[in-house]
Amino acid sequence: MTKKNELAEKLLYQPKNGYDRLSDDDRREMERYCADYMSFLDRGKTERLCVDCCVELAEARGFREYVPGMALHAGDRVYCNNRGKSILLAVIGTESLSAGANIGAAHTDSPRLDLKPRALYEDAELAFFKTHHYGGIRKYQWVTVPLALHGVVVRGDGSVVAVHIGEEPGEPQFIINDLLPHLGREQSKKPLGEAIPSESLNVLVGSVPFVDEEVKNRFKLGVLQLLHEKYGVTEEDFISAELEVVPAGRSAEVGFDRSFISGYGQDDRVCAYAELAGIFDAKQPKKTAVCIFADKEEIGSEGVSGMKSAAFERFMGDLCASQGVSLAECFAHSFCLSADVTAAYDPNFADVYDKKNAAFVNYGVGLCKYTGAGGKSGASDASAELVGKVRALCNDNGVFWQMAELGKTDAGGGGTVAKFMAERNIDTLDAGVPVLSMHAPRETVAKLDCYMTYKLMRTIFEQA
Ligand code: MN
Ligand code: MN
Questions:
Q1: Are 429 and 337 in contact (CB under 8 A)?
Q2: Centre of ligand 1 from the C-alpha of residue 409, in Å
Q3: Predicted confidence (pLDDT) per residue in 387-416, tens digit
Q4: Domains of the chain, start order
């Protein structure tokens, strides 16, 4: 009998819940780490705010802004702010960049509602902002949720005004109306994806008219008057603006045991923060450690601040040039962990998951050999050798991990920045925190999985 059990233990893969193997030290560290992460999440409600927050945290830890041509030595810490919307950080290693870099790539943009260029209008003596959603949202989730507004308005004279309203106590918030159930009989028969059309995601912003009853559009004007007083902006200024409507409020611990974190934008700030803390804490990396927090992942990694942008080549090329190394040589020997969230198995929606290959809450960081949809379409499909390398790193360093597939093959799919790194001839593997209610106004993660993702990032920067 004993022999049989020994054989089972030796041959069968038996994943175990993280709480059954977490040490007291790790548990304390996990709580400390997650408190820091939650404050990052609360400050970084947009990609721009994430960059601001990263710069502040990095400078406090000895990072300096990279200036092209500056001399770099082992141990130097630099960052490069790409247009205020994406950021790269590096710790120069003791080995030459010809041996490659260890790269962590995550994204800090999250699904949201952007204001349309001509957003403000009035109807039935109510003032609204029209929105255009950014990324994959389920529209029905965004009605009757408290909302905040963040972003910048560039005025006619070129001056930039920052707008942040709806987060602090005492500040007004915003809301999108929903239909009352009493009149929802026909709407309730529609598929979820059709019940709330995009053009009805209009944000309620005011109802006090401009005093002069003779003036046209006096409800719209009432709002513009307030905006002009507070920000000095006119209606035309909104055309050169980036204003993002996001769920208002802070993250929260969830559950009697406080084992979860609920909050907006955890895809992918939960992995970005794991990378950030990992590069901060990594002790004397041999290979140069690089973090990139890309923008625009949720709309295909496009644009100058997205992962396809040559801004990455420029920064890495500069680092290589400072050592007389070719960028192609560096990329060919580099390793990238594309740190992005994956779907956590949810028993409430069991039929969309392959339970044998799903990521489970509290089982640690999810390693994802391939993302994509259907027959691995759009996946970079990491090699067995690469998965083997990361698996061994995890096992040798007390990082709890699991394999993760995003749902049943026929259920849908999703992508990450991984393929854009692999296209650059960089060996890339996806890994990240399993998330419940991904892309919802509030997403839920387990503290244990957040902490293990941080441990993996740190291990990669120190040892990969
Ligand atoms: Mn993501
Ligand atoms: Mn996403």
A1: yes
A2: 19
A3: 999 999 999 999 999 999 988 998 988 889
A4: 3-110+264-463 (3.40.630.10), 112-247 (2.30.250.10)
